[in-house]
Design a protein that fits this description.
Helix content: under 10%
CATH architecture of the largest domain: Sandwich
CATH topology of the largest domain: Jelly Rolls
Number of strands: 23
Structural class: mainly beta
Distance between the termini: 98 Å
Order of helices and strands: HEEHEEEHEEEEEEEEEEEEHEHEEHEEE
Mean pLDDT: 81
Strand content: 25-35%
Number of helices: 6
Radius of gyration: 49 Å
Low-confidence stretches: 1-101
Length: about 400
């Protein structure tokens, strides 16, 4: 009985001809003809693989190593060394991706679609901090809603439905809740002691879409408002920084003298001539938090005394942003940093005069340790040889500062 060696290389394996009938001949690539008819496969060394019998025209040629090897009888020689490409004698072929590409991962089942409408987005977002008190609440739904049912489902202790207006887009998918008035900011002087004010609202599950389907569950969200911090700066009670000076290079006399606590503005008769008075106020700046926004600063003073008719003879009271080291002739004649305009066109004793000085305050805050101002009337003097002036005690002169923080 004839036997064939077990070919162990991949190409040799593909070239083995296992003849099932006596007329089949296998032709190798070198032209050798194996015309002996094998009686059967070897009983003592069964093949691990059982390929079907190919036709002679489909049988691939064995590689050179197989063709040139001597053909013997009996089992394959134990001295044959398989190449690195040899397949194992046991087990199946190793698997590999089709076309070199990995098999796609099998994903799990898709999440079920909700049975009813849902809230897609809300603004301000849930948990937002530092929200302005004039912002509206905007809720976007996944489907056109029943407006009446949805408005009835809105609830909030902070901004109840009785104090808001409901505005819908044409599609009925976007609801805007507009408060009738801006919400009150929590306020105080010390940022560390001003608590955040939280605004909560929700849409109950009774809100339905146009098909009558309700929300799967109530929707709730909340946000916190900005906090307002307010405090006052007081005029420096230093006659070199807060007081008056005259056009004749003197500080003043009477209630406007250096030893007094008044700032005088207007004119005064001195040795038969009218001399102009200008007033000066200085405030020491304090640091603000880096996150401070919407800074407001208002200068306020009281007219605590008056001589003559300053508003009638000299025009309106003018405020200037100034910078000086000490009250004197140089501070009197220096060009203003900014003309801040008329702050009063009339008044008498007890009149409170105020002006917005936020721009000057912020400019000084970036570069200086003080913010300073100068006051004068539109006309230097009316030449009537009478005193026409106002007085303001420095303990009535303040800047009210306010800002917002998250």
């Amino acid at each position: 009985m004839k036997s064939y060696p077990v070919v162990r290389s991949l190409s040799g394996l593909a070239g083995v001809c296992l003849a099932a009938c006596s007329s089949v001949a296998c032709t190798a690539s070198n032209g050798a003809l194996f015309d002996e008819e094998p009686e059967s496969m070897m009983a003592d060394e069964p093949s691990e693989l059982e390929p079907s019998s190919p036709s002679p025209s489909e049988t691939p040629a064995p590689d050179d190593a197989t063709t040139n090897a001597p053909v013997g009888t009996g089992s394959a020689s134990s001295e044959e060394t398989p190449s690195d490409d040899d397949l194992p004698l046991t087990g199946g072929f190793p698997t590999s991706p089709v076309n070199g590409k990995p098999e796609p991962a099998v994903s799990g089942p898709a999440a079920p679609e909700p049975d009813g409408p849902v809230v897609v987005t809300v603004s301000p977002s849930d948990g937002a901090v530092g929200v302005g008190n004039d912002e509206n609440i905007v809720i976007v739904f996944s489907a056109p809603m029943d407006r009446e049912a949805t408005e009835a489902a809105y609830q909030s202790e902070s901004i109840p439905s009785s104090s808001v207006s409901f505005v819908w887009n044409d599609a009925g998918t976007e609801l805007t809740i507009v408060p009738d008035a801006p919400l009150a900011y929590p306020a105080g002087e010390d940022p560390s002691e001003v608590p955040a004010r939280r605004v909560s609202f929700f849409i109950s599950a009774s809100a339905t879409d146009l098909e009558g389907r309700g929300l799967p569950s109530a929707f709730e969200a909340s946000f916190s408002l900005l906090r307002r911090v307010s405090f006052s700066l007081f005029a420096l009670q230093d006659r070199n920084l807060s007081g008056s000076f005259r056009s004749n290079d003197t500080y003043g006399n009477g209630e406007c003298a250096r030893g007094e606590i008044n700032m005088c503005v207007g004119d005064q008769r001195v040795n038969g001539n009218n001399e102009q008075y200008k007033g000066f106020i200085s405030f020491e700046l304090t640091e603000l938090p880096e996150e401070a926004r919407s800074v407001e600063a208002e200068l306020t003073l009281e007219i605590t005394g008056m001589s003559g008719n300053p508003f009638g003879g000299l025009g309106g009271l003018v405020l200037e942003h100034a910078s000086f080291d000490v009250i004197g002739s140089e501070a009197f004649g220096a060009e203003a940093l900014e003309e801040m305009g008329l702050i009063a066109e009339g008044g008498g004793t007890g009149t409170i005069v105020s002006a917005d000085v936020a721009s000057a305050f912020m400019a000084d805050r970036r570069e200086r340790t003080m913010t300073q101002y100068r006051l004068r009337f539109e006309d230097d003097t009316d030449g009537d040889n009478n005193a026409d002036a106002i007085r303001s005690a420095w303990d009535t002169q303040t800047i009210a500062v306010s800002y917002l923080i998250p």
